[in-house]
Amino acid sequence: MDSDEEDYVFFGTPIEREEEITNRRKKAAAEASGNLRALPPWKQEVRDEEGRRRFHGAFTGGFSAGYFNTVGTKEGWAPQSFTSSRKNRAEVKQQSIFNFLDEDEKAELEGTLGTSSQFDTFGFTAAEHARKQADKEQKQRPSAIPGPVPDELVLPASESIGVKLLLKMGWRHGRAINDSRASSLYDARREARKALLAFASEDAKAPCPADEPVEEPESFTVQPSDDDTRSSQSLPAFVCNPKQDLHGLGYDPFKHAPEFREKKRLHLLNDKQRGDRKTMSIKDSLFGSKSGKAAPGFGIGALEEYDAEDEDIYAAGYDFEETCIEDDEEPSRLGIESKQPSRLSIESKQKVVARDQGVLPGFKVASVSDYQLERFDPPVIPKDFVPHHKFPGPLETLKKLDVPSPPEVPPPDDSNLKLLIEGVAKLVARCGKLFEDLSRKKNQSNPLFSFLSGGNGHDYYERRLWEEHQKFGDQAKLLLDGKLSPSTQKMTAESRGKLLGEKPLERSSRETTTSSVASGEFQLQFNLSDTFKKPDSFSKLPEVAKPFKDDPAKQERFEQFLKEKYEGGLRSTGYTAASNMSEAARAREKLDFEAAAEAIEKGKRGKESMVPTQPLDFLASGMQFTSGGLEQVENSHAEDLVTKKMYPRREEFQWRPSPILCKRFDLIDPFMGKPPPAPRARSKIDSLLFIPDSVKVAKPEEVAITNRDVPAAQTGAQMTIEDVAEQEIEIVAENVERPVDLYKAIFSDDSDDDVEDLNTKKAQDPEKKTEVATTALNRLIAGDFLESLGKELGFEVPPDTPYSTNKANDLRIETPNSDSGNAKLSTGTYLNPGNETAQDGDSQKSKSIPVRSGGYNSGKHTVGLLNVSGKVNEDKFAQEDKKVKSPSSRRRNWSSSSSSEDERSRKHSKRHRYRSSDSYSDPSSDDREHYCSRSKGKRERSSREKSSRSRKHSKDHKHRSRDSPSRSHRGSEREHSEARKEKRKRRD
Amino acid sequence: MSSSELPRKEANVLKGHEGAVLAARFNSDGNYCLSCGKDRTIRLWNPHRGIHIKTYKSHGREVRDVHVTPDNSKLCSCGGDRQIFYWDVSTGRVIRKFRGHDGEVNAVKFNEYASVVVSAGYDRSLRAWDCRSHSTEPIQIIDSFLDTVMSVCLTKTEIIGGSVDGTVRTFDIRIGREISDDLGQPVNCISMSNDGNCILASCLDSSIRLLDRSTGELLQEYKGHACKSYKMDCCLTNSDAHVIGGSEDGSIFFWDLVDASVVSKFRAHSSVVTSVSYHPKDNCMITSSVDGSVRVWKT
Question: Where is this region: Disordered (chain A) (predicted)?
Fold first, then answer.
C-alpha cells in the first residue's frame, strides 16, 4: 500500500479515517498512561503496544481479554497460602481512607483541608501540648519566681463565642466536651446539695453565701500546682495582647501617654465585669481560693468536695440570689484586687492607686473648681399648711345617724318646692354630704335651691334629710348586717370584691324576686361582666346633673338607669319595682333617660375632678328597691318631645378596617399587631343584628315581672330564651380589643403580612370564640342594651294578645312625622301577594325563610323605587321585577341560592326569626287584619278628616286604579318596603 | 354670600342624554362636569361653554353615579349592572371593572389619593376597591348596614355612608370605630359640608337634616321640598351658607343654613331633580333631571 501511494501525486490532505487510525493511536497512548482505568471493566480492551486488538479467531473466543486471555496481571493468578485464623487472629486493621485510595488519589488528597492539632485551641491535645511546652520552657529558664509561671501574668485571649457557650453549658477548660456529667454520683451529690441549699435559703441572709460555692466550685479544688483537671491551668492561651480595639495593626494610641492606656484598660475591665458575671467569677477564681472560703461548708455535705461539675448552671431558681451576690461580692473583690499587687506587676499597683485616687497618675484633684453645682431651695411650705387632708364630704353616711333629729317642720306650701326638697334630701342621704355641697355650689344662683343654703324651706329640708338618713341607714344596715357581718369572720370572695370595689353578683337578691326565670347562667354571665367593671364608674354618679329634679322618683330611676348604663349591668330591681308603669311609658321614659344621659355625658367630659365617693355607698343603694313612680301621668305629655329626642341617635361600634385599606388611605392601621378578629365580616353583622335578640336575654326576667299585666307573654319569653340559647352557640361576636396604642403603631413596621394573616388566622379555637362571643355579648348588652330595650319594651307584645289596637295607638304616638311620607304608601301592604306568602308557613322554620326573602326583596324594591327616575323607562325593569316576584319563583330562587347567599341567608334568618317571633307569630289569617288596622291607624293620622275605613279603602283603590298597571305594581312594592320600614321602626 | 348671589339664572342646558339623567357632578376644579343616566352613558361636558366633550359607553344598565379623580385622569362609575367601572378619562376605555356587589350600586367615590374606590350598594354594603393593585376583589366590605346604602362620602380618614335603614354611619379608619347616627328616616343622600364638620342628609320624609359630625347632634332640618321616593341629591354651597336641594316637582330649593328658611325656590326642570352639584369656587351650579337635561345655573 505504501508503495502504491508513492506512485501517485496527492493533492491536499487525505481524509483520515478517524476510527481506525487516530483512535487506535490515541488508545494506545491512553493505555500507556493508564487512562483506560477510567472505563468500566466491561469496556476495557486489551491491546498490544501498537494499540491493536488481538484476535484469537473464532474458536478461541474472538478478541482477547485480560492478560493474554488469562487474568488481569502479568503475574497471573497465584493462590495465596492459607493461614489459619485460629492461631493468627485477624489483626484489627486500622482502616483509613488511604487504604482505599490509589497513589494518585492520595497525592491529590494531600493538599486538601484537614483537622490539625496545631490549631486545636481548646482540644485536650493542644492544651496538653502547650502545658508541656510551658513546663519545658520553665525548666530551661531559671525564673525569679519559684514554681510554675503564674498564669495571672498571662491574660487569656478573649474567649470566642463557642467557648463562652460551652462554659455556659458547664464545660471547663481542659476538659473533654462529652465529659460524664451524668454519673450517678454526681447526680446524687447535686441533689443532696440542692436539698441543703433549700434548707439554707430559709433564712434571709443565707442565700448570698450559699450561692458562692455553687458559682465557683473550682476555687476549692484549684491548687496552684495541681493535676490536669485544674481548670485555668489547662488552657494557657499565650496571646498577650489580644486585639480589642479598632485601631490599625501596630498603632498605639497611647504611645505617648501610657497613663491613658491603663485608664482605658481599667475602664474596659470594669465594664466587662459588670456586664459578664461569668467572666468575673472565673477571674476571681484566678486569685486563689480566698473568696470561695467566705462560707466554708455551707450548702455542701461534709463528705463532699467541690469540683467543676458541681456547678449547677441549670438551677434557675436561684437567680435572685445571684443578683444579690453581685452586690455583696463587690467589696470582697475589691479587697482581693487590692491585695493583688503583691503578686501582680507594678502596673496593676498603679491601677489600684489610680482607683483609690480617682484621677490619672500625674494629675491631682483641683482644690478649687470652677464648676459649681447649682442648688435650688426647696419650695417654701406655706405657714398655714396643715399636713392633713380633709375630705369635703363625710365618708360614712351612716355615722350621721346619731345626729339629733331636727324638729318636725310642715312642708312648704309650694308643692314643687316640696318635691324638690324631698328629692334632694333623698339623694343627699344616699350619696352623702358631698352631693349636697355639690348641688349647692351648682345652684348658687338658682333661687329654687335656696333651701340648701338656709333659705326658704331650709328647715324642712333638714328634717327630710334626717328622715332620709334614718330610712337609708336602716336599709343600709340591713344590707350590711346581712352581707357584711358574717364575712368579717373570714374573707369571702364577696367581701374581697367589696374591698376592691367590685359589684357583687346580685344573684341572691334577684333570684328571690324572679323565681320564674330559670336563666341563672345568663345572669351570671352578665354579672361577671359587671364584676370586672372598675369602681370608678361609681364615682361618676354623684356629679350627675339632675335633669328630673322636679320628679324625685323619676330622678331616682334615672340614676338607677345611669348606674346600669355605666356599669353595663342588667337592669336590676329599680325598674322592676316601677311596674305600674305601662310598657310604652316605660320605654319612653327610658328613651328620655337615654337622651338625658347623653347630655350629661357630654357636659361631663369637661369636668372630671370629683372625689370618688366610697363604693359601698352605691353598693347599698344599688341593691335597693326603689318605690314605683307615681308621676307617670306627666310622661304622656312629654311624648312628643321624646319622639323628637329619639332621633338622631348615635351609637358606636367597633369596626376593623382592613390593613390594606389603611395603607391606601395612608393611615396607620389602628389594629396593627393585634390578632385578626374572629371572622370579622360575619361577626360584625351578627352582633349588630343580634342586638335586639340578645337584649332578650335580659328580657325573660323583665317579662316575668311585668307579666303581671300580661300573663300570656310567658310563652314568648320562653321562646326568646331558646333563641338566645341558640345564639350563645352560634354567635361569633366581634372581639373587644382596643386599637393598638400609639407607640406600637409607630414603632412596629407595617407590612402586607397582615393581609395574609387575616386569611390564615381565621381558623381559631372554637372555645375561644365562644368566650369572646359571650364577653362581646355582655359588652353589647352593657352598652346598647338599655336603649334598645327601652324601645323593645314599648312594642313587645305577646303573640296572643290582640295587637291591632295597641299597635295603632302606639304607632300613632311614635311616628308622628313619618306618616306624612309613608301612610299613603303603606296602606295597601296587606294586599301585596309577596307579603302574604311570607306569612304562609306554619312552623317557625319554614316561616323564617319566606319572611327573609320577602325582606330581601323588599329591600330591592326599595332601591328600585328610589331609583325610579323615569316612569316610562322604568317599565322594562318593573316587568323584570314582576317576573322575579311571583311568590313561587321567589321561593325557588331562594332555595336554589348559591352558597354565598346561604351564609347571608343565615344572617337573615337570625334577624328575621326575631322579627317573626314578635310580629309574625300570629296565625297568618290575622295578618290581613293587622295590616288593615295598622294602616288604619296610620291612615287616621295622615288623613285625619277621613276616618272611615271603607272610605279609605275606596280611596286606596282609586289611588291604585289611577296608576298605570306597572306603576301600581311598583306602588305595592313600595308599600311593601314601606311596611318593612315601618316594621323596623317599630322594632327600633 | 348673600341670597342675591345664588345661581338662579340658567346659563346653559346640556342636552344629549336620552332619558333620565341620574347624576351630574362637577370635577374637582369645577371646569368640567360629568353626567350619567338611564341611557347607560357617562358624558363629559364643559358646562361653562355648554359643550359636550366625550361620551363613555360601556355600562350595560343605567349609570347611577360617577366620580372623577382630583387629577381628572380617572373616572369611576357605577350603576344597575352591579359593577364599578374604572375608566381612563382621556381614552375613554375601561381600565378595570370591579365586580362583587350583589345588587345595583348606588354611589361611588374616590378617596383623596384616588387609590381606593368606595361604592355603596343595594346589597347593604359599602365596598372598597383597590385601584393600585390588579385585584378585582374588594379590599374591605362594610356590611353593617341594615338596608340599601344610598350614598357614600369620603374624608381623608373616614368613610361615611347613608342608608335606607335611616342611619348615617361613619367608619373611622384611624381609630377603627363605626359611629352610627340613626335619623329614623331612610337616608337618600349624604353630603359633606365644605368645612367637613357637618353632614347633610336628605331623608325620604321630605326633609334634609344637618348633622354635627362630632356629636351626632341634629343641627337643623330643611323642609318644603318633596322627596319621598327618588334618589335625589342635596348639597351645600361652596361657602356653606346655603343648602340646596331638588324637589320631585322639578324645583330647586335654597335654604339658609342657619335658620332653615327657604331663601329661594324656582322651577328648574319639568320633572324630578335628581342631582345638584355646586361649583367648588364660583357661584355656579348644575342640576340634572329626569327630563333628560342637565342645566347650568349662574348668578
Answer: 31-50, 127-153, 204-234, 484-517, 796-988
